[in-house]
């Protein structure tokens, strides 16, 4: 598997090799021992999947707070997305900065997002299916987020904001400036 470290510490893009012939291809998309040795020594406990029917559907920016903070390994099974992460670790040199990766089945690229980051995506094509492994179960009491259109963060989405579709919940998320601190950069672990 090929890894690429991102401009923000902790984020890793992973591209599994594909072995193809006239029938198509085969790829090992996840190997626990390899992941623990080369990316992060974590245990995934749940796999999630979502379908977004319309291009321009934005989901996020989401995260969970301790003790249910989640790391995520994200890939796109159908369609195409712009996957986005925002550093929300207090004291981080990249606090409030964002980066994006295009994910699609054609490339097979995956994105590792550790706890301490807000995560979201927008669908570039209709009927996009996203699959992601998480390191903690979903907990409604620990579920948080920040506004995907926060001007302080300034994410450059591929659609005009008026064309984007989001949930009622995501439309009410706070801005980064109004977010309490939940993660610390210096300790490299979520705060208690």
From TrEMBL:
GO BP terms in the entry: dTDP-rhamnose biosynthetic process; polysaccharide biosynthetic process
Pathway: Carbohydrate biosynthesis; dTDP-L-rhamnose biosynthesis
Entry's EC annotation: 5.1.3.13
PANTHER family, alphabetized: DTDP-6-DEOXY-D-GLUCOSE-3,5 EPIMERASE, THYMIDINE DIPHOSPHO-4-KETO-RHAMNOSE 3,5-EPIMERASE
NCBIfam families linked: rmlC (TIGR01221)
Family per similarity comment: Belongs to the dTDP-4-dehydrorhamnose 3,5-epimerase family.
Stated name of the protein: dTDP-4-dehydrorhamnose 3,5-epimerase
Origin species: Rhizobium aethiopicum
């Amino acid at each position: 598997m090929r890894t690429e470290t991102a401009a923000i510490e902790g984020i890793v893009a992973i591209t599994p090799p594909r072995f193809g012939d006239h029938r198509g291809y085969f790829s090992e998309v996840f190997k626990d021992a390899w992941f623990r040795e080369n990316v992060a020594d974590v245990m995934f406990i749940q796999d999630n999947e979502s379908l977004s029917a319309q291009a321009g559907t934005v989901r996020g920016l989401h995260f969970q707070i301790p003790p249910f903070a989640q790391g995520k390994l994200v890939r796109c099974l159908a369609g195409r997305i712009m996957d986005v992460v925002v550093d929300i670790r207090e004291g981080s040199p990249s606090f409030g900065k964002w980066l994006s990766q295009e994910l699609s089945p054609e490339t097979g690229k995956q994105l590792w997002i550790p706890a301490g980051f807000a995560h979201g995506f927008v669908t570039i094509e209709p009927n996009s299916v996203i699959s992601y492994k998480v390191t903690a179960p979903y907990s409604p009491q620990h579920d948080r987020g920040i506004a995907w259109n926060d001007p302080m963060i300034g994410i450059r989405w591929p659609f005009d904001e008026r064309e984007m579709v989001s949930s009622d919940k995501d439309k009410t998320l706070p801005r980064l400036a109004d977010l309490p601190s939940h993660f610390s950069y210096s300790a490299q672990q979520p705060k208690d």
